[in-house]
Amino acid sequence: MFKRIALFIYGVVSYFIYVGWLFAFRMTPVMTLAHLVFALGTTLYILAAIQFEERDLVREHGHAYEDYRRRVPMLVPSGGHASGGGVASYAQNPSDLPFGPPYGEEL
Prior knowledge:
about 110 residues, mainly alpha
Protein backbone atom coordinates (compact mmCIF):
# COMPACT_ATOMS: atom_id res chain seq x y z
CA MET A 1 0.00 0.00 0.00
CA PHE A 2 2.76 2.46 0.95
CA LYS A 3 4.53 1.79 -2.34
CA ARG A 4 1.44 2.70 -4.36
CA ILE A 5 0.91 5.89 -2.36
CA ALA A 6 4.54 6.92 -2.88
CA LEU A 7 4.30 6.24 -6.63
CA PHE A 8 1.12 8.30 -6.81
CA ILE A 9 2.71 11.22 -4.97
CA TYR A 10 5.82 11.17 -7.19
CA GLY A 11 3.48 11.29 -10.18
CA VAL A 12 1.84 14.49 -8.91
CA VAL A 13 4.95 16.58 -8.17
CA SER A 14 8.64 15.76 -8.14
CA TYR A 15 9.40 17.53 -4.86
CA PHE A 16 6.38 16.90 -2.66
CA ILE A 17 8.39 17.27 0.56
CA TYR A 18 9.54 20.73 -0.51
CA VAL A 19 5.93 21.65 -1.32
CA GLY A 20 5.02 20.68 2.24
CA TRP A 21 7.79 22.85 3.63
CA LEU A 22 6.70 25.79 1.49
CA PHE A 23 3.18 25.49 2.91
CA ALA A 24 4.41 25.00 6.46
CA PHE A 25 6.50 28.18 6.41
CA ARG A 26 3.46 30.21 5.43
CA MET A 27 0.85 28.70 7.74
CA THR A 28 0.73 31.13 10.59
CA PRO A 29 -2.18 32.95 12.20
CA VAL A 30 -0.26 36.24 12.13
CA MET A 31 2.34 36.98 9.50
CA THR A 32 4.92 39.17 11.20
CA LEU A 33 7.71 40.85 9.31
CA ALA A 34 10.20 38.41 10.81
CA HIS A 35 8.13 35.41 9.73
CA LEU A 36 7.71 36.87 6.25
CA VAL A 37 11.48 37.33 5.90
CA PHE A 38 11.98 33.76 7.14
CA ALA A 39 9.40 32.41 4.66
CA LEU A 40 10.98 34.28 1.75
CA GLY A 41 14.49 33.19 2.73
CA THR A 42 13.54 29.53 3.02
CA THR A 43 11.68 29.72 -0.30
CA LEU A 44 14.79 31.02 -2.03
CA TYR A 45 16.87 28.35 -0.33
CA ILE A 46 14.50 25.58 -1.46
CA LEU A 47 14.40 26.87 -5.03
CA ALA A 48 18.21 26.95 -5.14
CA ALA A 49 18.46 23.48 -3.57
CA ILE A 50 16.13 22.07 -6.23
CA GLN A 51 18.46 23.28 -8.97
CA PHE A 52 21.42 21.47 -7.42
CA GLU A 53 19.35 18.33 -6.84
CA GLU A 54 18.03 18.36 -10.41
CA ARG A 55 21.59 18.60 -11.75
CA ASP A 56 22.68 15.63 -9.62
CA LEU A 57 19.65 13.54 -10.60
CA VAL A 58 20.23 14.18 -14.31
CA ARG A 59 23.88 13.23 -13.89
CA GLU A 60 22.97 10.03 -12.05
CA HIS A 61 19.92 8.86 -14.02
CA GLY A 62 20.46 10.52 -17.42
CA HIS A 63 17.69 10.41 -20.01
CA ALA A 64 15.32 8.50 -17.74
CA TYR A 65 15.22 11.40 -15.29
CA GLU A 66 14.99 13.94 -18.12
CA ASP A 67 11.86 12.13 -19.32
CA TYR A 68 10.44 12.04 -15.77
CA ARG A 69 11.16 15.76 -15.39
CA ARG A 70 9.27 16.51 -18.62
CA ARG A 71 6.29 14.41 -17.50
CA VAL A 72 5.89 15.47 -13.86
CA PRO A 73 5.73 19.08 -12.62
CA MET A 74 8.32 20.21 -10.08
CA LEU A 75 6.25 21.94 -7.38
CA VAL A 76 2.77 22.82 -8.67
CA PRO A 77 0.49 19.90 -9.58
CA SER A 78 -1.09 20.24 -13.00
CA GLY A 79 -3.03 16.99 -13.34
CA GLY A 80 -1.01 16.11 -16.40
CA HIS A 81 2.09 17.65 -17.88
CA ALA A 82 2.55 18.92 -21.41
CA SER A 83 3.59 15.51 -22.70
CA GLY A 84 0.55 13.77 -21.19
CA GLY A 85 2.32 12.20 -18.21
CA GLY A 86 1.59 13.04 -14.64
CA VAL A 87 -0.39 11.11 -12.09
CA ALA A 88 -2.16 8.70 -14.38
CA SER A 89 0.90 7.45 -16.21
CA TYR A 90 2.95 6.65 -13.10
CA ALA A 91 0.05 5.26 -11.08
CA GLN A 92 -0.71 2.83 -13.91
CA ASN A 93 2.87 2.02 -14.85
CA PRO A 94 5.19 2.53 -11.87
CA SER A 95 8.10 0.95 -13.71
CA ASP A 96 8.32 4.23 -15.68
CA LEU A 97 9.78 5.97 -12.64
CA PRO A 98 13.46 6.59 -13.42
CA PHE A 99 14.62 5.52 -9.98
CA GLY A 100 12.48 2.38 -9.69
CA PRO A 101 10.13 1.42 -6.90
CA PRO A 102 10.58 3.25 -3.57
CA TYR A 103 13.37 1.99 -1.35
CA GLY A 104 14.51 -0.59 -3.92
CA GLU A 105 11.52 -2.87 -3.27
CA GLU A 106 9.76 -4.84 -5.93
CA LEU A 107 6.14 -4.01 -6.73
